[in-house]
Design the sequence.
């Protein structure tokens, strides 16, 4: 338990964090509530919380030791240039898009991107051109295959960039080589949201190849998600080859870091990125090997009503378990994990995603295994069939909505920042979304988890969206709705 600060008036947030500290974390950040660091390092880290001073340097104008840390990271991650972004990949995505595109430019991208990309597109006045399924079949989780990316680029050759999320939340990756080749042939740059893949570089023979190694021009990674770095440490990598051939401008990137990054960046977060890189460089391969083994061992030991999901090209350091065979709803399953003191990264209507830290102890795996094995299916065959069919129907609706054509009544920028005095100031929750009339959405509608937008700002909310949201809400709690 973290020591509580004595003699203070109410500190509800601090108290809540203290209560959180003893749980078994399969959740980001991957330093496991600091357990990955030595006591000595934790004491030192707290003393090092500072910003730009004469002696610490400037993260936005790297010289001396800052430049040295950036260069070590660039060398390790296979980049021409690397920046430490201390305000998350959300910021890194803004910089990445602004680096490659100007106001009004078209960008080929899937509808299903993290909301950071939606908001960046609106802020920058970009025109998204959604990738549609080349085969006519909706994309699984809204994530296009390489052929569909290529077809979309050919259909929109005037676009200036192609934007890919890789891996997705479930660790799945699309092969970028053909996408990169086609993008470059058409004069586009390839931008990759690699928020969940910062660890790939540590063990290329066991994990999917990095975006940079497959031809990406710029890649943004959340160091805090899969590396032992503080929240929300992020890495922005520019490809050396793309700089050399003039496809991207490091000077433009440098000026945009100043635009989007806070003027008081946390050196603590930046230094933790430096440490995470060094840890990964020294121990990364062995850690990944161990995690791949522990993940396999755990999934092999589970009862047959669980199924590990790891198609070819998946991040094997991540654990994705299909729990549909338990017959539990999302809320029930998440509740069971919670009662066992376990924080999963994400639980959707069928899958639980666990992100182990690079040094996740075997005891945590034992606790997870025990918790999973203690959940027993209680439904009979007929009830189970109905349960699985309902999940499949939801998944099919989700995939169709996430693969749908763009339907903008106004631009995302107008919808988000135009004058609509009635617009709520925060993203809509699912029940609020039910009440929407078919007018342009003022905000993104992205049911969480995993938070992919079925409606972009400026698109109408249709009966199909409302039906999906009603069914999703009902499935979460096990309430049956007749449609
Ligand atoms: C795919 C993806 N991209 C971008 C982000 C934003 O990253 P950050 O939290 O580092 O700002 C997230 C965060 O969950 C994400 O999952």
Sequence:
């Amino acid at each position: 338990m973290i020591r509580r600060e004595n003699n203070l008036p109410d500190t509800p947030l601090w108290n809540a964090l203290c209560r959180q500290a003893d749980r078994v974390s399969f959740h980001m950040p991957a330093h496991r509530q600091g357990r990955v660091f030595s006591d000595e390092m934790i004491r030192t880290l707290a003393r090092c919380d500072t910003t730009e001073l004469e002696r610490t340097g400037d993260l936005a104008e790297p010289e001396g030791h800052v430049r040295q840390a950036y260069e070590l990271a660039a060398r390790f991650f296979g980049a021409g240039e690397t920046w430490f972004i201390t305000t998350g990949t959300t910021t890194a995505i803004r910089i990445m898009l602004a680096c490659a595109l100007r106001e009004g430019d078209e960008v080929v991208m899937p509808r299903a991107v993290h909301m950071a990309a939606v908001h960046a597109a609106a802020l920058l006045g970009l025109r998204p051109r959604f990738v549609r399924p080349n085969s006519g079949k909706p994309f699984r989780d809204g994530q296009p295959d390489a052929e569909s990316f290529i077809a979309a680029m050919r259909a929109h050759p005037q676009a200036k960039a192609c934007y890919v999320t890789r891996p997705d939340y479930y660790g799945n990756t699309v092969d970028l080589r053909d996408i990169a080749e086609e993008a470059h042939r058409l004069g586009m740059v390839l931008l990759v949201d690699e928020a969940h893949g910062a660890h790939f570089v540590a063990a290329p023979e066991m994990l999917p190849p990095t975006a940079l190694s497959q031809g990406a021009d710029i890649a943004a990674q959340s160091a805090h998600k899969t590396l032992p770095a503080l929240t929300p440490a992020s890495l922005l990598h520019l490809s050396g080859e793309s700089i050399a051939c003039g496809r991207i401008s490091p000077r433009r990137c440098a000026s945009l870091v100043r635009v989007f990054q806070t003027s008081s960046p946390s050196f603590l977060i930046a230094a933790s990125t430096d440490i995470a890189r060094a840890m990964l460089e020294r121990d990364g391969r062995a850690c990944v090997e161990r995690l791949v083994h522990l993940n396999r061992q755990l999934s092999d030991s589970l009862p047959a009503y669980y199924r590990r999901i790891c198609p070819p090209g998946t991040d094997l350091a991540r654990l994705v378990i299909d729990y549909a065979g338990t017959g539990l709803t999302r809320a029930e399953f998440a509740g069971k994990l919670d009662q066992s003191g376990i924080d999963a990264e994400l639980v959707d209507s069928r899958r639980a995603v666990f992100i182990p830290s690079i040094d996740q102890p075997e005891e945590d795996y034992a606790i997870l295994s025990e918790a999973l094995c203690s959940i027993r299916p209680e439904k009979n065959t007929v009830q189970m069939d109905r349960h699985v069919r309902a999940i499949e129907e939801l998944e099919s609706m989700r995939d169709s909505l996430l693969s749908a054509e763009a339907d903008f009544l106004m631009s995302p920028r107008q919808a988000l920042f135009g004058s609509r005095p009635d617009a709520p100031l925060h993203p809509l929750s699912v029940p609020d979304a039910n009440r929407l009339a078919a007018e342009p959405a003022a905000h993104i509608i992205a049911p969480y988890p995993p938070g992919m937008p079925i409606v972009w700002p400026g698109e109408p909310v249709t009966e199909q969206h409302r039906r999906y949201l009603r069914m999703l809400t009902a499935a979460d709690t096990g309430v049956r709705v007749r449609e």
In short: The pocket of pyridoxal-5'-phosphate is lined by residues 88-90, 114, 116, 165, 193, 195-196, 222, 232, 234 (CB under 6 Å). The mean pLDDT is 91.
